[in-house]
TrEMBL record:
This is Peptide chain release factor 2 @ programmed frameshift-containing. Coiled coil: none annotated. PROSITE patterns: RF_PROK_I. SMART domains: PCRF (SM00937). Belongs to the prokaryotic/mitochondrial release factor family. Keywords: Protein biosynthesis. The keyword Protein biosynthesis applies. GO terms for molecular function: translation release factor activity, codon specific. HAMAP family: Rel_fac_2. One of its GO terms (cellular component) is cytoplasm. Residues 179-195 form the Prokaryotic-type class I peptide chain release factors domain. It comes from hydrothermal vent metagenome. Pfam families: PCRF (PF03462), RF-1 (PF00472).
Length: 299
């Protein structure tokens, strides 16, 4: 409330100033007033956006999972392109990232990747990315240079704080250890330090192999498991609300949300908000704010 009152006062002051400037010849005063107006507009945009981030877990860190669809190397390469896009967005936004599980593709790309984006409102923003992302391009892996369409799914869950009670019984967990896979180098594991946890009641499986320590991998895997179980409960609650006739405003898991076309023309289009951007390379380099904002404000 205090923020809105402060904006109202600033707006009233600027309106009063603009009336005075109608008869004022001082260019420096006009420039100053225009700068103040632009600043007020920018701040109002930020306030409007923050009002959209009112969910209980919006301020939390985000756990991001990327899984390529059918299509082998082409879709696995697309999954890695999306991973890079989110890493660059996080860097631009001042967030930290930590890869907790990475399964490389056989020729290129990734078969799956899980990483945590840490920072204020990471989940609130990145939940806009949940769904299926579609890529159309001339495949660099096709010797006949044909156009291919690839699909990759993105899941985003909040990193659930330890203070939040989410009952996970030890008897409900099956914990396996295995040797981590990887392309080699200094981070390759030579011991069975990777951890896979199966939650037996739901069938949810998570794995972590990024750390050398089995203990650290287990802790990271439990973080991801908590996030997944929370998301599962949220989905069930949403389905119940919809069954009772509530409005369908939630995220539809598995639905296509955005299309990235590189050939025959260049365009990224969000299928929910209608936001379009012609500079595909800029988007793939992490410039996602226009899409995130469009999604949040359209909700």
């Amino acid at each position: 409330m205090e923020n809105f009152e402060a904006y109202e006062k600033r707006l009233a002051d600027l309106l009063e100033l603009s009336e005075l400037l109608e008869t004022e010849e001082d260019d420096s005063m006009k420039k100053e007033a225009l700068a103040d107006m632009k600043k007020l507009a920018d701040d109002t945009d930020k306030l409007e956006l923050s009002a959209m981030l009112a969910g209980e877990h919006d301020p939390d860190n985000a756990i991001v999972e990327i899984h390529p669809g059918a299509g082998g190397t082409e879709s696995q390469d697309w999954a890695e392109m999306l991973m890079r896009m989110y890493m660059r967005w996080a860097e631009r936004s001042g967030y930290k990232t930590e890869v907790v599980d990475f399964l490389p593709g056989e020729e290129a790309g990734v078969k799956s990747v899980t990483f945590i984006v840490s920072g204020e409102y990471a989940y609130g923003y990145l939940k806009a990315e949940i769904g299926v992302h579609r890529l159309v391009r001339i495949s660099p892996f096709d010797s006949n240079k044909r156009r291919h369409t690839s699909f990759t799914s993105v899941s985003v869950m909040p990193e659930i704080d330890d203070d939040i009670k989410l009952e996970i019984l030890d008897d409900d967990l099956k914990i396996d250890t295995f040797r981590a896979s990887g392309a080699g180098g200094q981070h390759v594991n030579v011991t069975d330090s990777a951890v896979r946890i199966t939650h037996l009641p739901t069938g949810v499986v998570v794995s972590c192999q990024n750390e050398r320590s089995q203990h650290k991998n287990k802790a990271s895997a439990m973080k991801v498991l908590k996030g997944k179980l929370f998301a599962l409960e949220e989905q069930k609650m949403q389905e119940k609300r919809e069954a009772l006739g509530g409005e369908k405003k939630g995220i539809q898991w598995g639905s296509q949300i955005r299309s990235y076309v590189l050939q025959p023309y260049q365009m990224v289009k969000d299928l929910r908000s209608g936001v379009e951007v012609g500079d595909v390379r800029r988007v793939l380099d992490g410039d996602l704010d226009v899409f995130i904002r469009g999604y949040l404000l359209s909700g």
